[in-house]
Design brief:
The protein has nine helices and no strands. The protein is an all-alpha fold and 216 residues long. α1 packs across α2, α4 packs antiparallel against α5 and α8 runs antiparallel to α9. The radius of gyration is 20 Å and the shape is elongated.
């Protein structure tokens, strides 16, 4: 008699995490389609294919769900950036490029994810949720980038550059390119926007980049 093998069942904790992620993914889809005000727990559960009771078990309110969505998206980008920055042998310019690549990675720049970010940017009532959910991660990335840029300035003598002001300008560039990707996807493809960001950074720090970084 042949024994049949089957995949082990997920643990209760794994199943709970999977359901929670299912609701987060469904919320991202809903916000991209219907905006913040048009996203209800009913729409989320319909997209996720789960009951309202199950959704309420994981998230007591829509605001709590929205906060979890923002935390998920921010943590996803943070993990990618930190993974690319782990080697202690990386130069200051390589560390800066790791941050750029994390901002324009295909998994980060999916249009529905961009739609979620700008939904929160544009809704006055949601900005406090944004600051509460991802303010610390934003500050961590900004502080790290300022430190990298300060090191580059010290290395090459870019005396005309202020580290903090330069980083804020670079961050604004990222946001502007993301917005163009969302509004005009055929004209502002992800690879084009990534390349534009890299060209600006190369122009800011010419002594660190003899040539523009490899463009993909």
């Amino acid at each position: 008699m042949n024994e049949t093998s089957s995949a082990p069942k997920p643990s209760r904790a794994e199943a709970k995490a999977e359901r929670r992620q299912q609701l987060i993914d469904a919320t991202i889809t809903s916000i991209a389609r219907f905006g913040l005000t048009g996203t209800t727990m009913g729409k989320v559960t319909e997209i996720a294919g789960v009951s309202l009771g199950l959704a309420n078990f994981h998230f007591e309110s829509k605001d709590q769900l929205f906060e979890a969505v923002l935390q998920h998206l921010a943590a996803e980008q943070r993990a990618l950036w930190l993974t690319r920055s782990q080697s202690p042998a990386l130069s200051s310019s390589a560390l800066l490029l790791a941050i750029v690549e994390s901002r324009f990675h295909a998994s980060i720049c999916a249009r529905k994810k961009l739609a979620v970010w700008f939904a929160f940017y544009g809704d006055a009532s949601a900005r406090e949720t944004y600051r509460r959910a991802v303010g610390n991660i934003d500050d961590e990335r900004l502080d790290a980038t300022v430190a990298i840029v300060a090191e580059m300035i010290a290395e090459a003598g870019y005396a005309h550059l202020d580290p903090a002001e330069t980083v804020l300008s670079i961050e604004a560039l990222y946001d502007g390119l993301w917005l163009n990707m969302l509004l005009y996807p055929s004209d502002f493809r992800r690879s084009i926007c990534r390349n534009r960001a890299l060209k600006v950074i190369t122009a800011l720090f010419p002594k660190h980049f003899d040539n523009a970084p490899a463009l993909g």
